[in-house]
């Protein structure tokens, strides 16, 4: 169990992590999501006591990391794939880690075997590919057979077989009752592995919810409308108290109203519709919308997530999550985002 | 299961664990806790014996680190080659010239080669820690051992012991050759105390200089920068002193000269004659360098504890 309490990290002017409070529980895979520069790696470094928090604390099973008597037996972590001396062989790299925690030497062979690096155990890690470096890092995390595992973007550089392998590895580790905490920027990847989600953007907590809830709330179903009389259609919808948003390509999107009801409404007002189709937004889109406001580094060609502009009934944000969901700390997930959007 | 066991004495426990095929999910360790459901706060208990990690564990880890990198082996080999090789050449040269070694013992012939060989210790001392910062290994190291004082202490112990041992062997060899070849040319016969100074004394001195390098590497974290600073520290005072002609600066000049690393080392060899150039004598250089090492190491501990890794 890892508990974060008001965790904050400031680098000069830059607030990298901003008052993060959440709990990572055992027995499940907890996904840690956020766009580039959201503060995921910084948070993980603070969990391992590598970076000192500006405010707040991290407790690992009730203790500070530096108080752990045999750290590798409690926490295994993969930070950077290449956080190792390139001139040292894979075997010796793991051996020095094992020795520092009094872990039996035979365990080194075991983990090398687990990650499939036995054949290159005597080779210097300088010559390793990104994926091999990643596997060696994972071997280091597994070395102490710890009850808590932390992986910072473990699928980076792995081939499809490797990705499949690490997914199953994480699930199995969690199924054994361990705490598994894994960061990623890929919602689709997390959807396949994580049972619980913690989403941050610009260092702030955006969501702390179970995967199932996130899917239920965010595989937003909406209805897409196309009409030659778009202005009148908007008036009619607004008159009926229905919120619609226009997309970039001139469509209308309506949340929370059945397509049948919309069709009947249009028919009553003798509106011509060119399209009336129920849609399902992907989780990836949901994630991008959730973090849209906090994306710092994005390409310039298109706004992230094709963020729709509210036009009618703009007082209610179009894609606010339905109420009645889980109530995580901070007044419900997305509260922050909703506030911003509304202003 | 939690009984502490010495590392070498229990090959049985971990090896009884069945070997997993590559890429297998690690559900194979015996004694696995029952799989917890998503909500179950069931902890996982590892079958591997647990014991509290100690400073000795950190020392053996650092020893593995230092011996498993080729550059260490190379640098130390070069150092031995310089001390012994150049020491022999000088002895042979002086022997062939037949000139009288006035005011010194035969052991004085070993000074210059140790001075040169010392450069390797400066480099290696810095690299022992700065290479960890350069590669990112430091984060792995500090994750495995979050007690930063223990990490630096282990590094200091291992590096000091290693440089001391290597310097001791090299200087002892050179001293033997010097005495064998140059005894007839020297003005004084080498006493037991003098033998001790040029072997044990010099080795302790070089070891402590290595500690200073390690400390500077910890403070600066950057290999090239820290090596440059160390070279400057060793050479600059002497060079600066040489160019201080002004009479008013003569006391500064004298201090710079006396406390420069080469002059300190030369005291052990009595190479500077009847203490004409320096007021230090006997084992004084060792205390000077020990104080410097203590201050540097203190700074390194403080910096390591305070800064983010
Ligand atoms: N040592 C540092 N000094 C100054 N700023 C830093 C430092 N480390 C991180 N930052 C800043 O803190 C912010 C968070 O960085 P962090 O690496 O934690 O993000 P991340 O979520 O891991 O991103 P990514 O998905 O790209 O890995 C970034 O804006 C980064 O520039
Ligand atoms: Mg990162």
UniProtKB/TrEMBL annotation, chain A:
Residues in ABC transporter domain copies: 2-227
Entry annotated with the keyword Plastid: no
SUPFAM superfamilies for the chain: P-loop containing nucleoside triphosphate hydrolases (SSF52540)
Record field: transmembrane: none
Pfam families listed in its UniProt record: ABC_tran
Keyword ATP-binding found: yes
Gene Ontology molecular-function annotations: ATP binding; ATP hydrolysis activity
UniProt biased composition (Low complexity): 302-326
Span list, region Disordered: 298-343
InterPro entries hit by this protein: AAA+_ATPase (IPR003593), ABC_transporter-like_ATP-bd (IPR003439), P-loop_NTPase (IPR027417)
Top-level taxon in the UniProt lineage: Bacteria
Entry-linked SMART domains: AAA
Protein keywords: ATP-binding, Nucleotide-binding, Transport
Family that this chain belongs to: Belongs to the ABC transporter superfamily.
Name of the molecule in the record: ATP-binding cassette domain-containing protein
Source organism of this protein record: Streptomyces klenkii
Automatic annotation (TrEMBL), chain B:
GTP-binding keyword on record: no
Chain segments annotated as coiled-coil in the UniProt record: none
Keywords on record: Membrane, Transmembrane, Transmembrane helix
Residue ranges, compositional bias (Low complexity): 1-18
Transmembrane segments: 73-94, 106-129, 156-177, 198-220, 226-244, 285-305
Stretches the record annotates as Disordered: 1-32
ATP-binding listed as a keyword: no
Entry protein name: ABC transporter permease
Source organism of the structure: Streptomyces klenkii
């Amino acid at each position: 169990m890892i508990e974060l309490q008001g965790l904050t990290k400031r680098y000069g002017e830059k607030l990298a992590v901003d008052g993060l409070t959440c709990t990572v529980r055992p027995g499940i895979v907890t996904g840690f999501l956020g766009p580039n520069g959201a503060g995921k790696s910084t948070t993980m470094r603070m969990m391992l006591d590598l970076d000192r928090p500006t405010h707040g604390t991290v407790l690992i099973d009730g203790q500070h990391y530096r108080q752990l008597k045999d750290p590798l037996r409690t926490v295994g972590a993969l930070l950077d794939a290449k956080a190792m001396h390139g001139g040292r062989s894979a075997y010796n790299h793991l051996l020095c880690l094992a020795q520092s925690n009094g872990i039996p030497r035979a365990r080194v062979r075991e983990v090398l075997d687990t990650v499939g690096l036995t054949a290159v155990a005597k080779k210097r890690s300088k010559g390793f590919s990104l994926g091999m470096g990643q596997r060696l890092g994972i071997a280091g995390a597994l070395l102490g057979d710890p009850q808590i595992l932390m992986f910072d973007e473990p699928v980076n550089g792995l081939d499809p077989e490797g990705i499949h392998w690490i997914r199953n590895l994480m699930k199995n580790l969690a199924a054994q009752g361990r705490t598994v905490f894994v960061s990623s920027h890929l919602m689709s990847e997390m959807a396949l592995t994580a049972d619980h989600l913690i989403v941050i953007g610009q260092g702030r907590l955006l969501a702390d919810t179970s995967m199932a809830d996130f899917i239920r709330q965010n595989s937003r179903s909406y209805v897409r409308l196309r009409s030659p009389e778009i202005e009148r259609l908007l008036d009619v919808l607004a008159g009926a108290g229905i919120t619609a948003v226009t997309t970039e390509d001139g469509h209308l999107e309506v949340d929370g109203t059945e397509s049948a009801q919309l069709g009947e409404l249009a028919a009553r007002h003798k509106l011509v519709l060119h399209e009336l189709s129920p849609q399902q937004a992907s989780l990836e889109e949901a994630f991008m919308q959730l973090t849209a406001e906090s994306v710092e580094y994005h390409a310039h060609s298109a706004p992230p997530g094709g963020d729709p502009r509210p036009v009618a009934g703009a007082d209610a944000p179009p894609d606010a999550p339905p109420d009645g969901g889980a109530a995580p700390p901070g007044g419900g997930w997305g509260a922050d985002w909703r506030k911003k959007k509304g202003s | 299961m939690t009984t502490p066991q010495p590392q070498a004495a229990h090959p049985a426990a971990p090896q009884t664990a069945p070997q997993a095929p590559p890429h297998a999910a690690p559900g194979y360790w015996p004694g696995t806790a029952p799989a917890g459901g998503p909500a179950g706060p069931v902890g996982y208990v590892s079958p591997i014996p647990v014991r509290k990690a100690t400073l000795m564990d950190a020392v053996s880890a650092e020893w593995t680190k230092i011996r498993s990198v080729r550059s260490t082996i190379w640098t130390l080999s070069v150092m031995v080659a310089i001390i012994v090789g150049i020491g022999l050449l000088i002895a042979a040269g002086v022997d062939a010239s037949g000139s009288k070694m006035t005011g010194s013992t035969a052991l004085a012939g070993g000074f210059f080669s140790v001075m040169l060989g010392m450069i390797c210790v400066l480099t290696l001392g810095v690299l022992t820690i700065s290479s960890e910062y350069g590669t990112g290994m430091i984060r792995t190291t500090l994750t495995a051992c979050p007690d930063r004082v223990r990490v630096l202490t282990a590094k200091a112990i291992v590096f000091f012991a290693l440089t001391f041992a290597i310097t001791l062997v090299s200087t002892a060899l050179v001293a033997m050759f010097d005495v064998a070849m140059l005894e007839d040319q020297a003005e004084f016969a080498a006493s037991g105390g003098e033998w001790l100074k040029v072997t044990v004394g010099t080795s302790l001195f070089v070891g402590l200089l290595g500690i200073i390098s390690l400390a500077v590497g910890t403070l600066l974290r950057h290999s090239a920068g820290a090596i440059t600073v160390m070279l400057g520290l060793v050479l600059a005072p002497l060079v600066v002193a040489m160019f201080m002609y002004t009479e008013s600066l003569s006391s500064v000049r004298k201090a710079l000269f006396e406390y420069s690393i080469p002059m300190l080392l030369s005291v052990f060899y009595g190479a500077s004659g009847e203490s004409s150039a320096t007021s230090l004598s006997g084992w004084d250089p060792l205390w000077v360098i020990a104080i410097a090492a203590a201050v540097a190491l203190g700074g390194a501990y403080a910096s390591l504890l305070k800064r983010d890794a």
